[in-house]
Specification:
Order of helices and strands: HHHH
Helix content: over 70%
Number of helices: 4
Structural class: mainly alpha
Radius of gyration: 16 Å
Number of domains: 1
Strand content: under 5%
Shape: flat
Oligomer: single chain
Number of strands: 0
Length: 94
Amino acid sequence: MLIEVNEKVSKEAYELALGLKKFVVSIKQSLSDGWQPGSDLPVLLQAVILDLVPAINGIDKIPEEEKENLEAFVTAFLLPVKSLAFELLKKQGV
């Protein structure tokens, strides 16, 4: 039996970790059919602009978040990394 548990996380740290996760997933998807710069680069640039740039805007607040609540700060990175690990372990076509 499983239960759902809510976690409190640091906002800026979570957004950065989630943006990095999305970017890695975009790279994986772009390379799934081999490296094709003409079609892959626009997708990767879009991922950087949509996922990473907004997250990087708050990067200067991360040291404050770590001091404010270390557990929420660490959890903010762990959740997207856990999700990324499962994404990378998925078999193609499943």
